[in-house]
Amino acid sequence: MTTPSKLAVPLSEAAAMLSVNPRTLRRYIAAGKVPAFRLPGGRDLRIPVAALEALVNGNAGGASA
User: Fold this and answer.
1) CA distance 61 to 65
2) Is the pLDDT of residue 4 over 60?
3) pTM of the predicted model as reported, rounded to 2 decimal places
4) What angle in degrees, to the nearest 10, is found between the helix axes of 22-30 and 11-18?
5) What is the DSSP track for the chain?
């Protein structure tokens, strides 16, 4: 997985980084496996890159920001 120079990425980009469907990533977020936050305005979800790296490395749910 190549790490962008960002601290957090949009849902679609995070799903592409993990090679999963965005719906799958939404399920991970709902299950508490991946943390996410909304930008002001309430529509755009962002996922911390550190959380994605933790998920890939087998430390699911472990990244806290």
Assistant:
1) 11
2) no
3) 0.76
4) 100
5) -PPPSSSEEEHHHHHHHHTS-HHHHHHHHHTTSS--EEPTTS--EEEEHHHHHHHHTT-TT----
